[in-house]
Amino acid sequence: MGGLMFHPMKEIRMVVSGEDRPFVINLLDKVKAGGYTIISNISGKGRHGFRESHFMFNDTENLLMIMTVVPADKVEAILAGLQTLFERRSGVMLVSDVSVIRREHFSTP
After folding, report:
1. Contact 23, 14 (CB under 8 A)
2. What residue ranges do the domains of the chain occupy?
3. pLDDT digits (tens, 9 = 90+) for 22-64
4. For labeling, which of 62, 86, 87, 100 is most exposed (least CB within 10 Å)?
5. At 24, phi and psi to the nearest 5?
6. Long-range contacts of 77-84 (CB under 8 A, 24+ apart)
């Protein structure tokens, strides 16, 4: 592939209520995730049925997806923090193996 070097990482995707956004962001900042992406106002269907996004005055009532890519050694701390959230709130979390080219963009010293 033209000399590109790939580095293994983990991608974590979380679908949570907008009101849980501060909790998740605080957790990612605490474990020093290199960054994250937030997609607001998403809709979807799960075991509780279809949930459609309705943006009114703020996004705390809507679903959002927060995605981050981190080194494998940060996953356990993130999952432990999210476990406390998912014990009392609904949400979805997916963890996948990914490869990145610029490893330094996905970790904080």
Report:
1. no
2. 7-106
3. 999 999 999 999 899 999 888 777 777 766 665 555 555 688 9
4. 87
5. -65, -45
6. 77/30, 77/31, 78/12, 78/27, 78/28, 78/31, 78/33, 79/12, 81/27, 81/30, 81/31, 82/14, 82/24, 82/27
